Amino acid sequence: MATKSRDTAELFGVELSKKTVDRLKAVGFHAFVWGSIFLVLLPVFWMVIVSLNPLSFLNFIEDPMRWVNGISLDAYDTAINETDFLIWFKNSTIVTLAATALTIVVCTFGAYSIGRLRFRGRKAVATFLLMTQMFPLILVAVPLFLIFRDLGLVNTLYGLTIAYIAFVLPFSIWMLRGFYENLPESLEEAAMVDGSTRVGAVIRVIVPLSAPAIATTAIFAWIFAWNEFVMALILISDSSKTTLPPGLSTWVGRYSLQWDLLMAGALGATLPLFIILFFLQKYIINGLAEGAVKT
Amino acid sequence: MARILFDEVTKIYGDDTLAVDDFDLEIEDGEFLTLVGPSGSGKSTLLRMVAGLEDITEGEIHIGDTVVNNLPPRSRDIAMVFQSYALYPHLTVRDNMAFGLRRSTDLPDYEIDERVQEAAEMMGIEPHLDQKPKHLSGGQRQRVATGRAIVRDPGVFLFDEPLSNLDAKLRKHMRTELQRIQNQLDTTTIYVTHDQEEAMTMSDRIAILNYGELQQVGSPRTVYNEPENVFVAQFIGSPSMNMFVSKLDTDGGRFVGDIDVSIDPDRARAIEQNATTDQLLLGIRPEHITVHLEAVDESVPATVDIIEPLGSNDLLYFDLEDGTGVEEVIADNVEIGEDEEDDEEEYKVFIQPSSVPNEYEDTGEIVHLTFDTEHMHVFDPQTGENVDVETTAAVDAQTETAGADD
């Protein structure tokens, strides 16, 4: 039998030159990847489309030109100038920034203590933290409200920040603790022999090394605080202190569902998340690639 | 003055594990002392207590004239090289080495840079100063770790098995380098290792530990030639010392048992006085036995088990007829080292290459052994002690004993 020449390969039973097959494979791969991206981001694209001109999906498909003709930035204009959107945005930013920053500080030292230092009841504390994770927010919302009211923390941004920190800490500490347990002890010991106090060793050696893990914790805390709805709704009744999630929810039904306004607001609320994630994501990847945890 | 004094130092861990038991030792300024022993002997614990990384349960440790029990590591003027090197992964080599100086001194930057440069030259790592540890080989990292310690110019160097992670050739090379550096800097050094060969080649004195107790301390030659007990005798020297069981016949001036040898009557009497039993252990190193193909005066017959070519000489393993195992006579509380405990008796002797034909291996052919009784050590299996008065007298005169076993 004649042998196949080296330059051919098979694709779905059809014999083609190798170069063609490679090209087709590459095209297929890219088509698949970009197609998936498109599908996943479709809702976001739709949000943008609607915010510019609130047409129904069928109308848009039938006659895209009709959509193009009616484009305007009115929705954004209304959101910024005629509603409380900017106030809510400001409040969300304050609470989220504060909660994330404080969570990182407390979490780093807390996780280090549980993961590294030897003291009685260490395991009990860790287990206790884990147990608190079992309670969904809704369950503790009412008791929490009563406690906060008695402490005078209701209707303040401080109160909300504290509540967020309290909810994020257990999981964050648990995550970071695992990380710290795996770091070799000799690193702090070397730093202490070299002239640091234990706290100094943690700040100068351990923290820089755990940057990727801390960044992950920061993202987790940020997303939680920014998106949180229940506590923000319950604890804050003053309209000047409302955050974005409860604020945006008032638009549903109140203005008889102005879709373009709602979408504009939703996009405005989501944009910061995109930006933060974009920057921190690079940091995490760099940290992992550098092998920051290598000994 | 950076001498180090251990004064009745004891360490008990929280779950009641006794790691170090009543340890006494004085290390002189500028001395290179090695703590050696099997795993779990307490040597690393002792080192870490000097460093301040472990609490001292009882007793005192002095560095110079200061009692350091309650001082944190940074205040003890020490530098340490860890087994895993413990380099800071996020810093360059230069910053790794400068870390200590920046933290514990007020030196200006240019001076710190100078000292880092000097130390890097000494360790041969200059080309790597601006790289990060993960780009370096194991040997290079080891040098950086040592450089980091040197640059601090401390009163004491502490080494915790620094060469264990290197391959054999590099290890030998680094041994010489470390020794050379220590001679040059003349800094008091405590070096911990489980490798007795390392201990022998590098130290001014060796302190041998087992289960937290000091067995013997002395110069390498002393602990090799004059071991005070069975543990030291078997631990030091590779291949290890042969142990034969024989009964002392004082009047006849002979030992009879695994091997039959004659000894000086005065010596026999002295041994009899020191020993608690007459069934004794005779320790003879492989280089102090001679193999003859024909029977000679005073020779003992043996069969050849295996012959190992080692290069410049061969190692011949032999078996004795009707041997008594060391296991049978030794008291329960006497340590001879875990490696020896469960092995069958393995007797070894050095021979000139090919002086014994390979055909003798495992065939029952008899060879004849004579023993250099001048270099023979006699131990009491009930106590583990060396009962040969001549040697112990010399030991007392030459070394500093810690007194822990008396």
Please provide a written account of the structure.
The complex is a heterodimer of chains A (295) and B (406). Chain A is mostly helical. Chain A has 2 domains: 8-72, no CATH class; 76-289, MetI-like (MetI-like fold, Orthogonal Bundle). Chain A has 15 helices and 2 strands. Chain A has helices spanning 18-52, 57-62, 64-69, 74-82, 85-116, 122-132, 137-151, 157-182, 186-193, 198-209, 211-227, 230-235, 244-249, 251-254, 259-289, and strands at residues 8-11, 14-17. In chain A, strands 1-2 form a two-stranded antiparallel ribbon. In chain A, a hairpin with a 2-residue loop joins strand 1 (8-11) and strand 2 (14-17). Chain B has 406 residues and is of the alpha+beta class. Chain B folds into 2 domains: 4-224, Rossmann fold; 229-392, Nucleic acid-binding proteins (OB fold (Dihydrolipoamide Acetyltransferase, E2P), Beta Barrel), CATH 2.40.50. Chain B contains 12 helices and 20 strands. In chain B, helix 2 (93-104) packs across helix 3. Chain B is elongated, with a radius of gyration of 24 Å. Chains A and B meet through helix 9 and helix 10 of A and strand 6 and helix 2 of B.
What are the key terms here?
heterodimer; A: MetI-like fold; two-stranded antiparallel sheet; 15 helices; 3% strand; disordered C terminus; B: Rossmann fold; OB fold (Dihydrolipoamide Acetyltransferase, E2P); 2 domains; five-stranded antiparallel beta sheet; 28% helix
Short description:
Chain A is mainly alpha-helical.
Give the helices and strands, then pairings.
The complex is a heterodimer of chains A (295) and B (406).
Chain A: E1 8-11, E2 14-17, H1 18-52, H2 57-62, H3 64-69, H4 74-82, H5 85-116, H6 122-132, H7 137-151, H8 157-182, H9 186-193, H10 198-209, H11 211-227, H12 230-235, H13 244-249, H14 251-254, H15 259-289
Antiparallel strand pairs in A: 1-2
Helix pairs in contact in A: 1-15, 4-15, 5-8, 5-11, 6-8, 8-11, 9-10, 11-15
Chain B: E1 4-12, E2 18-27, E3 32-36, H1 43-51, E4 58-63, E5 66-67, E6 78-81, H2 93-104, H3 109-123, H4 138-150, E7 156-160, H5 168-185, E8 188-193, H6 196-202, E9 205-210, E10 213-218, H7 220-225, H8 230-235, E11 242-249, E12 254-257, E13 261-262, H9 265-274, E14 279-284, E15 289-292, E16 300-309, E17 314-320, H10 326-329, H11 338-341, E18 347-351, E19 366-371, E20 377-379, H12 389-398
Parallel strand pairs in B: 3-8, 3-9, 6-7, 7-8
Antiparallel strand pairs in B: 1-2, 1-4, 4-5, 9-10, 11-12, 11-14, 12-13, 14-20, 15-19, 16-17, 16-19, 17-18
